[in-house]
Model the fold of this input.
Amino acid sequence: MFDSRPSERGERHMGALVRLGPDDAGRLAAFERESFPHPWTEGQFRDSLGREHFACYGIAWEGELAAYLSLSLAAGEMEVLNLAVRPRFRRRGLASRLLGHVLQLAHETGMTDAYLEVRASNAPALALYARFGFTCRGRRTAYYPDNREDALLLWRACGEKTTEISEKTGKEHP
Done:
């Protein structure tokens, strides 16, 4: 079971933001199987979570993992590997909270660039990333093996200040 205590900012209503470790590999792999056609395995998570350049953050809500984001930090760059929110927890700002957290982490650790790949058809994800200042830098043709869909390569500078629109209030906040 995940810790449901409030985060450092006391946001009980938004769940606790936690750093996930090797002991969470099974939960992450199960979440991946629910979320992606080509999920990471428990072994892949366990191996990656033991490495210095890899991190995974989650939001624990109502005793379960409601959302998570995995990333790699290396050579001055942050790569967002996966971001997923369980369907019943969507539209509550969890993806925004995770993305904002890791962009701040990247800035604080001296990363200069952030990038990720996203399915060209994933309109909600594209809107989220645009709110955080990501721009399209390229296209990877037939990138996804399940349906040969293209991926868009998105990028932003880590020190860049952006304004994000709250998914709950519709108002801007830094």
